[in-house]
C-alpha cells in the first residue's frame, strides 16, 4: 500500500547517519521507501520547564508496505531500539533521542488506537509539515480533509525549520 508517511527525527549522536540507518533498517523489514524529503534542522519542542537540548534533524519518507498499521508501528519501534533508543525508565515526552519514527499517515485510514493515525499532532508541527509538503503537498489529512500544504499554511508553530541537506 502507498500513501503511508513516516516522520523521522534525531538529536543525539550522529543524527544524519541515524536517519540513513533507519531507512536501511526499515527497508530490510519490508518497508520500501518510495520518496524522501530533504533533511531539516529544527528547533526542539520543549515542555514547560524542560531543559534545552540540541536541534533535531527531521525528515519525512513515503513508504510502501504490506504491513498493517500496527505491524508497521512495531517495525518502527524495533528500528528505534536497534538504533539505541531506550523508552523504558520513563523517557519524558519530547526528550532528546537517537531516533524517533512516527507513523504520520497510513493512506486514508483513521485509527484511534496504537498507532493513532493520522498522527494526533502532525498538523501542529512545522517540522513534520514542511518535509511532508516537500514530497507530497497534495496528500489529504483524512480527518480535517485539508491537504498537507493547507495544513502548513494554517499551522501556528513558530519553531525554526531550515533545510540542511539530503540523506
What does this protein look like?
The protein is α+β, with helices and mostly antiparallel strands. It is 28% helix and 25% strand. It is built from 4 helices and 8 strands. It has helices at residues 15-28, 69-82, 126-136, 148-154, and strands at residues 4-10, 32-36, 39-42, 56-64, 100-106, 111-112, 116-117, 161-165. The radius of gyration is 15 Å and the shape is globular. The mean pLDDT is 92.
Which key features would you list for this structure?
six-stranded antiparallel sheet, 28% helix, globular, 8 strands, alpha+beta, 167 residues, Alpha-Beta Plaits, two-stranded antiparallel ribbon
As for the CATH topology, it is Alpha-Beta Plaits
What's the number of extended β-strand segments?
8
Order of helix and strand elements from N to C terminus: EHEEEHEEEHHE
Q: What is the correct CATH architecture?
A: 2-Layer Sandwich
Q: Look at the helices and sheets and give the structural class.
A: alpha+beta
Q: Provide the gyration radius in Å.
A: 15 Å
Domain count: the total is 1
The proportion of residues in beta strands is 15-25%
Mean pLDDT: 92
Label the overall shape: globular
Name of the CATH homologous superfamily: 7,8-Dihydro-6-hydroxymethylpterin-pyrophosphokinase HPPK
The proportion of residues forming helix, as a percent range, comes to 25-40%
The N- to C-terminal Cα distance equals 23 Å
